[in-house]
Amino acid sequence: MNSFKELRLMEPIQRALRDLGYQSPTPIQAQAIPILLKGSDLLGCAQTGTGKTAAFALPIIQGLVRGQRRAKKRCARCLVLTPTRELAQQIADSFRAYGRYLRLSMAVVYGGVGQTPQVKACARGVDVLVATPGRLLDLMGHGHIRLDRLEVFVLDEADRMLDMGFLPDIKKVLAQLPAQRQTLFF
Ligand code: AMP
Question: How confident is the model at residue 48 (pLDDT cuts 50, 70, 90)?
Answer without folding.
Answer: confident
